[in-house]
Amino acid sequence: MCVDPVTAISIFTTVAGFIGDSQAADDQDDQILEQQRLNNEALLARQQEVNEDATKETSEATIEARKKRATLRVAAGESGLTGNFIDTLEGGVAGDLGRTRTNIEKQRKREEKQLEREKKGASSRAQSQLNSVQRPSIVGAGLQIAGSTLNGSGSTKKVTTISGGGRA
Fold first, then answer.
1. Residue 161 lies in domain
2. Which one of 18, 51, 109, 124 is CB 3.0 to 4.6 Å from 141, fit for a cystine?
3. Which tens digits make up the pLDDT trace of 39-95?
4. How far apart are CA 143 and CA 102, in angstroms?
5. CA-CA distances (angstroms) from residue 61 to 12, 98, 103, 163?
């Protein structure tokens, strides 16, 4: 089967366009996925910061509570106080430390949940972007090629008929 040059160029253009459009869609996918990866890394880094901050705050609160208890014991020893009163004061320091630790942990969990929501939102946005990427249709390209072939074969017949009719 012989294909006329116009039809061949049309087929080539359609195939090249399809390949180019497919590559452009793949490039968009890659960009979206890379952005999602970067967002996830940033959120993970923020989560690590939140955990490190909570650990630091807890350590500082523990050190502060130990200092208060030591100061309390020294003051009690210098003043000669002993017994339940000192135990009650030390219990108050321990209770304060416990409440501080609980508050720090609650705050850490709230921030962790917020970051998880942000991660889910970023993932949903990325999926939506991926879904909206325009992809070329292989069926559309096939129909375009078929149409070009039909048009090309019709023009070849016309050229043959016209040139044949001119010699007669």
1. 5-167
2. 18
3. 999 999 999 999 999 999 999 999 999 999 999 989 988 888 888 888 898 999 999
4. 67
5. 73, 9, 11, 99
